[in-house]
Amino acid sequence: MLRHLMALLTLTLLALPFPAAAQTDPTAPDPIAGTSVDDGSATATGRQTLEDILARQRGEEPANPIRSEDLGGDALNAPGMGPLGGASDADIWRQIRFNDADIRNTTLNPNGDVLVQTGGMWWENLRKNELRTYGGWLLLGTIAVLAVFFLIRGRIRIDGGKDGTLVLRFKFIERMAHWVLAGSFLLLGFTGLFSLFGRKYLIPAFGHEVNSVLLTGSKFIHDNVSWAFMIALIIVFVMWIWHNIPDRTDITWFAQAGGIIGDKHPPAKKFNAGQKIIFWSVIVLGASVSVSGLSLLFPFQMPLFAHTFEVINNIGVPGWFGFDPLPVTLAPQEEMQFAQLWHAIVAFLMMAVILGHIYIGTLGMEGAYDAMGSGLVDRNWAHQHHSLWLEHLEEEKPGKIRTPAE
Question: Membrane-spanning regions, if any (predicted)?
């Protein structure tokens, strides 16, 4: 019985297939150009090298390898390709990368045929490096300066304390417009920062899953809350523009440093010179960030930079600094890259301004928050910071001044 089993096992082992040992045939033809066994140069075979990748990242035009045009063919004339013929995924993507592929898109717009934009590497590098670095330091530096100023100056107190008489400073509609503008801006600011810094800081700290959920929600909030911001910006502009036109009282306010430095309290109307700077900064920067945001939402309908660059070139601005003329023919992808950078730069500047505004309205000045909280401020506060406005109310609108009993 044992002999039969041994014979059966021997026959089974002999029947198993074994791979033949690799042999080198000195008479075999050279390897096929462009295959994995080819050791030729990239320009001769069409294979991508590290130098090619680094060149594209530096914004240089990559050399078009010869195989980018060597597509298709019969399987019999393309050894090693089998029934697929001469075409392969690598060949197709090489054509796409060099914008040579015959692509059709449902938009019927020729710009939709651009699937891989090699020229966008400069934008990617600028966004990941300079934009993050300088923008982040601007915000951190602003916070640091405000902290040092608070330690040196302390809180600006009401001289003599509150007397209990209340003055109506802002109506409900004014406060509502302000808080919609402020609240929407905070949401837009945080979601924008998450989108810019998420890959660098949030992924290492919380992982890819948390970052993905956070940024998906951030994009939804950013795209939709932006409409509330733009509407509130228009309302605030219409309501307060007449109070923010510069006048002679602003010169005195600047001469006395607004009462922030020293003990003097310069006379001011409803808005002093410092508040006028905040107002016009918010209006101008807010309008700019809104227009660039709309361009990002509707890149095909609202191209901004091609025409702007054309105007700048006609004036000759690049030549003043020894630069070449700016590009005036931009694809929607390029328009979006310029718009995104401008959108982020202006947003960083606006956030720095708003940090100063938040400081004065909360921690920096006693009684300032009441103006936008309840709308009622103490009479001593109004006399100290807006004496001309208080005098106008006492003469023309005494009903806006309430005694403690009222």
Answer: 134-152, 179-197, 225-242, 277-298, 341-360
Per-residue H/E/C for 160-180: CCCCCCEEECCCHHHHHHHHH
Residues linked to residue 401 through DSSP beta bridges, in sequence order: 167
| DSSP class per residue in 77-91 | GSTT-GGGTT--HHH
The pTM assigned to this predicted structure is: 0.75
Question: What are the angstrom distances between the C-alpha of 203 and each of 27, 200, 207, 219, 388?
Answer: 55, 7, 4, 17, 54
Report the sign of the C-alpha dihedral through residues 316, 318, 319, 321, in that order.
Answer: positive
> Poorest-confidence range of 75-84, 92-101, 140-149?
75-84
Closest CA to 119 of 48, 51, 56, 54: 56
Residue 331: Cβ within 10 Å count: 19
The CATH number that domain 120-170+244-402 falls under is 1.20.950
Contact 297, 303 (CB under 8 A): no
